[in-house]
Amino acid sequence: SARRDLAGFRVVVTAGGTREPLDPVRFLGNRSSGKQGVAIAEAALARGAEVTLIAANLEIGEPAGCDIRRVSTALELQQAVTDAANGADVVVMAAAVADYRPADVSESKLKKDAGDVGMTLELVRNPDILAGLGHAPHDGTLLVGFAAETEPDDDRLLELGRAKREAKGADLLVVNRVGWNEGFARDENAVVVIGHDGVVVTRAHGTKMSVAEVILDVVVSESTTAAA
Ligand code: C5P
After folding, report:
1. Number of the ligand 1 atom closest to the C-alpha atom of 131
2. How far apart are CA 126 and CA 198, in angstroms?
3. Is the CB of residue 16 less than 8 Å from the CB of residue 33?
4. Run of H or E residues at 189
5. What do the Gene Ontology cellular component annotations say (predicted)?
6. How far apart (Å, rounded) are the C-alpha atoms in residues 33 and 4?
7. Quick one: angle between helices 208-227 and 35-46, nearest 10?
């Protein structure tokens, strides 16, 4: 890339989706492929950043040149991102993190009982990792969250994004619409980036790489504003 506008930046990106084990062979997961997060990591690297990629069950290859930390569960991701965020200039939380995990993880494969017609799983809440970072002191670290929403109405989608940015204490929140045919595992994405006071900083659509570049443009301009 011609632009080396992230030279000297330490960027942390979480990508993929967490898996919460039920037993040695089963998990609760989600359809996040990791493509958007990996595109952000690759683009940041090309723009000169030092990149730590926290990779949760990626369905695509890991980019070369990043410091990669592989995690699987939300609690592992929390540990890895909390460590890496220390002293980072930017943290991008692109990973889809499970809100709940099974209350108990069975040591052996769960069996069905003859005659069972169903079963109930008990789940407990996972910590909100982004909110944890957002509500702790993080001077000098720009926090970028994501929100995958199925809301079809554009105004309501924006409202959800604004509320989420505020609640989590993120500096920027990237909202994208997901569904059976949008968002996850696709090569293209359409996003709205929300900033402080709920302003729509920009909208972007196209390949996940082009969306990554636009998000990083915002990161660069927010960082120079903050430093000025
Ligand atoms: O609340 P919701 O899951 O929609 O928020 C999405 C954003 O919050 C993403 O940036 C995701 O990485 C982050 N998140 C988190 N910890 C959770 C759930 C989501 O950090 N337990």
Report:
1. 20
2. 26
3. yes
4. strand 188-194
5. phosphopantothenoylcysteine decarboxylase complex
6. 28
7. 60
In whole angstroms, how far apart are CA 225 and each of 60, 92, 189, 203?
35, 18, 27, 20
Quote ipTM for the complex.
0.97
In this structure, are strands 67-71 and 200-207 parallel, antiparallel, or unpaired? unpaired
Q: What would you measure as the largest C-alpha separation in the chain, in angstroms?
A: 69
Q: How far is the CA of 164 from the centre of ligand 1 (A)?
A: 9
208 assigned ligand-binding residue: no
Q: State in Å: Cα 131 to ligand 1 middle.
A: 8
pTM of the model: 0.95
Per residue in 91-103, pLDDT (tens digit) is: 999 999 999 999 9
Distances 209 to 190, 196, 200 between C-alpha atoms, Å: 12, 25, 21
What is the per-residue pLDDT across 143-182, written as a single tens digit (0 to 9) for each? Answer: 999 998 888 898 999 999 999 999 999 999 999 987 666 7
